[in-house]
Design goal:
The chain contains 15 helices and 10 strands. With about 350 residues, it is α/β, with parallel strands linked by helices. The protein has a 6-stranded parallel β-sheet, with helices on both faces. Helix 15 links the parallel strand 9 and strand 10. The protein is elongated and about 75 Å long. About 35% of the residues are buried.
């Protein structure tokens, strides 16, 4: 049995986009499932118009499994229920844009690509990159893509603030192979080596993007950029009924994707908890709940009941979180015994 606010979310038929504040234990997964069932069984919408974005493949599979109790599998298969990356890949493949994905959940594919093309990417001589340092380059490439870095500006900034000494360059180039141990033993050389790698990582990023294009490939981050660019030119899609889970973890590129999809949507439901955003630690956090709420005059419903934690835990958590919560929020978490 759904509580009052859960029922309001499930049966919402208003013209405004719907934002749902849903903390841990508030039954948000069940609400998403019931809303999809309501759209299909009660409003009789076309199942191929449904797009449900989840944060993990496990969550997507769980949604499909739980929906199968009330909706035939052939109907479920017409819906797009997936992670944002799977949606972007399917979308691009269906439109003949890309065919290869150079990425996986472990990052191993991308690591092997960078290892294979280290020389092409410029990681040689004073810019030497050890294999164990490849993950740090991957992290930087991902960051550059997600936050749309200006490569030229970044390169100039690094040149100005991260000097590489001539002594280091001359020393390294006097050896046939990079003298790793000797460089590490010299404090100044070690710092110059770090600065050189930092600079070359910024220089290598555009080269990396060209490599992906050469092989008609994408990684998990560039796939979003390509999908976004295509949608900007072709904004009309089959997806008219959109549900987004874990909306608080939306990154800037995803936010633009959702905005374009929203323009042609008949219903748009975003569920999440801004108190749990994974991007706040980066210093570049934007509250897309607040931005969507203000920009699109959204309907906001809060799932207040917590079915997982005890009353004492909830009260203690609220003491720390409530003073920092945005004014637009309607969250007033309380315990609800099952």
């Amino acid at each position: 049995m759904l509580n009052e606010n859960q029922q309001k979310v499930v049966e919402y038929k208003g013209d405004k986009p719907l934002l749902v504040e849903a903390g841990p234990g508030s039954g948000k997964t069940r609400v998403i499932i019931e809303r999809v069932k309501f759209l299909i069984n009660e409003l009789k919408i076309n199942p191929s118009s449904v797009l449900v974005i989840t944060f993990t493949r496990k969550a997507a599979n769980e949604l499909k499994e739980r929906l199968s109790g009330d909706i035939p599998k052939d109907i479920i298969n017409q819906m797009q229920i997936s992670t944002i990356h799977s949606f972007c890949l399917d979308f691009l493949k269906n439109n003949g844009i890309v065919t290869n994905l150079f990425d996986d959940d472990s990052g191993e594919k991308k690591r092997l690509i960078i290892q294979k093309y280290k020389s092409v990417l410029g990681f040689k001589n004073e810019f030497y990159l050890a294999d164990y340092q490849i993950p740090s380059v991957i992290n930087k490439f991902d960051e550059y893509t997600t936050f749309k870095v200006d490569s030229d500006a970044l390169i100039n900034y690094i040149k100005e603030t991260r000097p590489v000494s001539k002594e280091y360059v001359d020393f390294v180039n006097s050896f046939k192979f990079f003298p790793l141990r000797k460089v590490k033993e010299n404090k100044d050389f070690k710092q110059s080596w770090y600065n050189a790698r930092y600079l070359q990582t910024a220089r290598a990023y555009p080269i990396y993007l060209k490599l992906l294009d050469k092989y008609n490939a994408v990684d998990y981050n560039t796939i979003q950029i390509k999908a976004l660019n295509f949608l900007k030119e072709n904004p009309s899609t089959q997806y008219k009924n959109i549900l987004v889970d874990e909306f608080q973890d939306t990154d800037p590129v995803q936010a633009e994707l959702f905005e374009i999809l929203l323009q042609n949507a008949e219903s748009f439901t975003a569920v999440g908890d801004v108190d749990q955003s994974i991007y706040s630690f980066r210093g570049s956090f934007r509250d897309y709940f607040e931005e969507f709420y203000n920009k699109y005059n959204c309907k906001l419903i809060s799932l207040d009941y917590n079915y997982r934690s005890t009353d004492n835990i909830i009260k203690a958590s609220e003491m720390f979180i409530k003073p920092q919560r945005k004014e637009y929020s309607k969250k007033t978490s309380c315990w609800h015994e099952k």
